[in-house]
Amino acid sequence: MATTVEAGGVREAAFDAAVAADERIEPRDWMPDAYRATLVRQIAQHAHSEIIGIQPEANWITRAPSLRRKAILMAKVQDEAGHGLYLYSAAETLGVGRDELLDKLHTGRQKYSSIFNYPTLTWADVGAIGWLVDGAAITNQVPLCRCSYGPYARAMVRICKEESFHQRQGYELLLALSQGTEAQHAMAQDAVDRWWWPSLMMFGPPDDESSHSAQSMAWKIKRHSNDELRQRFVDICVPQAEALGLTLPDPDLVWNEERGHHDFGPIDWDEFREVLRGNGPCNDERIGRRRRAHEDGAWVREAAAAYAAKHGEAKA
Amino acid sequence: MSSTDWPLWEVFVRSRRGLSHTHAGSLHAPDAEMALRNARDLYTRRAEGVSVWVVPSTAITASSPDEKDPFFASAADKPYRHPTFYTIPDGVKHL
């Protein structure tokens, strides 16, 4: 027993040293159980968010106002599916199965980002999602490219490269509307009014209420606090909104010379918690749709497997 | 049959002619042909590749991290394998 504990201590010291030296932890390395569990939870939630995030945007593919916009939106949605797959693969390197992860999503035992429980009511919402939701995601994700877990960091590098197009197409879409007719401008403003606050919530609860933050930062899974990233995002968005000719729906939003940052109004965390609890506008719809898609696709998976078995190629 | 019954494949992409294939990531697929098609859609959506290899993950034999030190140690104490090990007088050219 004594030797086991001692061996564990040596492995733990090696892990701590690797993290401290900013080296990456790789799948076959020893790692603390809690580190593994934290990563599985975070990467799975991230993967689920990517594939659930397809739904609010796919809602507008058939109604995109031009062939150009339609092609762009389809490419974006295909990217989101791809991002989900990169992340599921990264999660699987930690010893969990793909089906297990999907099952946990379908039964509500693992979460996805609350932002996707809001509806896309107008075409301008596609622009607001690209600019604000993807913008917030990028602010969160860029530091994850240096996450201590190698496969997650590598997936994030790939994802961040691709997200840049997502954000820019959204911004361009909003700009076109903002500079269009009065009705189009109003539609763009309405979308920004509805997506601004939920986008700020994407950074998670305030630092003093965030249950996982301190440990994740110690493990270098996370590099910046929720509030720090939220502030960064607000500061980035203010001049971008001005260039769009749109306003952000916060009367308290003002430049604070002393801090060198924008002050902004209080976030409605009760709303955040309600959506998290499953009481957002689209929670049931999103999960219902996902489950149906999975069930409706079963015959395709079975057919592919049967074909592979017949040709003797599947070596499971 | 569920997707976890599908084998895992490692994907290697040659980004352009003249370069080696590099590991891009992994995916599940029922057979090699589907793995190739999925790899194209997943890893080369922006013309990142001119050639793709897929290899069943089970076919890869890996050195274990536990044996990292002894396995690679013999290379670490042979600095004389590097050109910088040797002292050459100033002014001597093409060496």
UniProtKB/TrEMBL annotation, chain A:
Give yes or no: UniProt keyword Oxidoreductase: yes
Q: Show the InterPro entries listed in the entry.
A: Aromatic_CoA_ox/epox, Ferritin-like, Ferritin-like_SF, PaaA, PaaA_PaaC
Give the E.C. number(s): 1.14.13.149
Residue ranges the record marks as coiled coil: none
Sorted alphabetically, which Gene3D superfamilies does this protein's record hold? Answer: 1.20.1260.10
On whether Disulfide bond is a keyword of this UniProt record, the answer is no
List the protein's name: 1,2-phenylacetyl-CoA epoxidase subunit A
Q: Which organism is it from?
A: Streptomyces meridianus
TrEMBL record, chain B:
What organism is recorded for this protein? Streptomyces meridianus
| Gene3D superfamilies, sorted | Phenylacetic acid degradation B (3.10.20.520)
Q: Which gene encodes it?
A: paaB
UniProt name for this protein? 1,2-phenylacetyl-CoA epoxidase subunit B
Domain of life where this protein originates: Bacteria
Q: What is the lineage of its organism?
A: Bacteria, Bacillati, Actinomycetota, Actinomycetes, Kitasatosporales
